[in-house]
Structures are given as C-alpha cells and as structure tokens.
Amino acid sequence: MSCDFAHDDAAYVLGALSPAERLEFERHLETCDACTRSVRSLAGMPGLLDRIDASVLENPPDDPPLPSTLLPALNRAVEDRRRRRTAVFAGLAAAAAVAALAVPVVLTRGDDAPPVSGPGTSSSAVVETRAMRPVGEVPIQATLGLEAVTWGTRLLITCTYDREWVDVELPGKVDYLLFVTTEDGRTEQVGSWRSVDGTTMEVPAATSVGRDDIADVEVRTTDGRVVLRLDA
User: Fold this and answer.
1) What is the per-residue pLDDT across 7-62, written as a single tens digit (0 to 9) for each?
2) What is the DSSP string of 107-170?
3) H/E element, 27
4) Is residue 39 one of the residues assigned to a domain?
5) Is 1 contained in some domain?
6) Taking the complete model, does pTM exceed 0.85, yes or no?
7) Are 84 and 17 contained in the same domain?
8) Contact yes or no for 119/202 (Cβ under 8 A)
9) Which domain holds residue 90?
10) Which residues cross the membrane (predicted)?
11) Which of 101, 116, 133 is the last residue of a domain?
C-alpha cells in the first residue's frame, strides 16, 4: 500500500509545508523508514538548487504532449493525484525558485526583534544557536542555528554585513558561500547569498550530514577565503 505521505518529502526538505503539515510529517518520519530514506536522499536539494541558473526558471522548456495512446483511466488517475497535490506542489515550486535564486530573508538591522522564520525552520524543534568566529578582520558577523533532524541537519545562518567594520574599501554587496565539513574530511557547499551593506539576513540551508558528524561550518567568499568559522 502506498504511503499517504510519499509525496511530501521534497516539499518538507525545501520548507514548502505549512507548520502544521511539517509537524505531522516529522511525526510520521519517526515510524516510516521509506520516507526517512527519501528525505535523507533529498537533503542536499537546497544546496543544489542554489546553483541553478535563474534562466532555467525564467525560460522553462515546454512540456511534451501526452501520447494519444494513454488509457483514459490512467489520465483520470493522474488528474486526481494532481488535484490532491496542487497546494503542496505550488509551495514546492515557490521554495525551489527561492533556493535557486539564493534569496535570503532580510531583517532589520540593530533591533531586538525575534528572528524571522524561514524555509526549513521548525517552531517545535530545539535549535542550537552559536556565534561564528571571525577569521581575521572581516566585515561580517553571524550566528548559526543547527537543528538535528531525522534525515540530517538543518542550518539557519543570521548574518550582518557592514563595510565600516574594516579599514579597507569594500563594495556595497558581497557574495558569500556556506560550507559544511564532516568529521572524515568531506566538504559540502550547502548555501550561498548576497550580503548588502547595513542589513541582516537569514539564510536557511540543509545537509544530509548528521549533526554529530559535522566537524565545522565556514562562511567563505567566492574566491575561497574563509571569513567566519564555527567548530561544531
């Protein structure tokens, strides 16, 4: 018998489920090995979508027409499934577009407002939040949230870029990359974003690497320089 949650795995990884749906799915993962394996295999999707050229979304290829030989019964079954999954796939498409274009959540700077929840966050889970250590004199500060989940680890970096923190001339916008290194030495890029001078941003990310297997997390410039590090 097909699992009722079989089509929620990608939407869950990309943060496209509503809070109630996410909580229900996480409870389901505790008892379903098939969905757990599926989510684990998709955990790197946000990082991969992060590398997709925006033109792919702006100019998608036309879908090929359905063969005329398809049985009417099959067509009806497909349409029934499409209707049931419309809301989830709409949210999934929106989340994929956000990840592909690397658009973080922008917060106000210098206030005491609570962090804004972004894709991949969970109001019911315990998130370990720690400050990242600057490597040298850098114009960026950040805290990193780490959340152990069944399929790996969710990350949420909250960072502020300010050119006045250094004595060199810097551009108003700088691209940064987020990397995770495992205990056995493997390195994986899990996110990227564009920091704007004087703003604070929240950038969600995810990895299939378990929380206990993460050795460190680094923020790097596009030329490979490490600017922030967290020894996990």
Assistant:
1) 788 777 777 777 778 778 888 888 888 888 887 777 766 665 655 555 555 555 55
2) E-SS--PPPPP-TT--TTS--EEEEPEE-SS-SEEEEEEEEEETTEEEEEEEEEE-GGGSSS--
3) helix 19-29
4) yes
5) no
6) no
7) yes
8) no
9) 9-101
10) 86-107
11) 101
